[in-house]
Write a structure and sequence with these properties.
Structural class: alpha+beta
Strand content: 35-45%
Number of helices: 4
Radius of gyration: 15 Å
Helix content: 25-40%
Number of strands: 7
Number of domains: 1
Order of helices and strands: EHEEEEHEEHH
Length: 157
């Protein structure tokens, strides 16, 4: 498992969250997901696991079926009520993410459910540790690299 706040691939973050989700079956109904935009025009997804922490995924759709991006754990186990309540505000939104398993080629990780959507994730980001701002910028840079790698920065001709 990576260090808290280290930027990792979507597959690595999804596997970490899947492991934590399965370890605590009685807490599954208390997990929260918040989606929204950032100031760069990218999508942010925040996942909260009770007594586990908060993860941020930053990315965009490469195609209708493929989300590219990166993620990091941005808050430790202890998450205050204000963070949890902020993640519960907004419009209900169904979500589904499928990721390759980071080590097993014939496996995929699927996350699906009902989350919340807010136009901007700034209110939540303001409540997270101050180091999260640096992580957000690292995630943006990683996404910019992925956009270039996959040719998503090519303009129309």
């Amino acid at each position: 498992m990576g260090d808290q706040m280290s930027v990792r691939s979507l597959a690595e973050i999804m596997e970490e969250m899947r492991r934590r989700y399965r370890q605590h079956p009685k807490l599954r109904r208390e997990w929260r997901v918040l989606a929204g935009g950032d100031e760069y025009g990218y999508s942010d997804l925040f996942f909260y696991g009770p007594n586990i922490g908060v993860w941020q995924l930053k990315g965009e759709l490469k195609s209708p079926h493929e989300f590219i991006g990166a993620g990091a754990k941005v808050a430790a186990r202890r998450v205050d009520d204000e963070i949890r309540e902020t993640m519960e505000r907004g419009s209900p939104m169904p979500f589904e993410m499928i990721s390759h398993h980071p080590r097993l080629r014939d496996r995929a990780i699927v996350a699906a459910g009902i989350g919340r959507y807010q136009r901007s994730t700034d209110q939540l980001k303001d409540l997270l540790p101050s180091r999260q701002q640096g992580v957000d910028l690292k995630l943006k840079r990683r996404l910019d690299e992925l956009r270039q790698k996959f040719g998503l920065d090519v303009g129309y001709r």
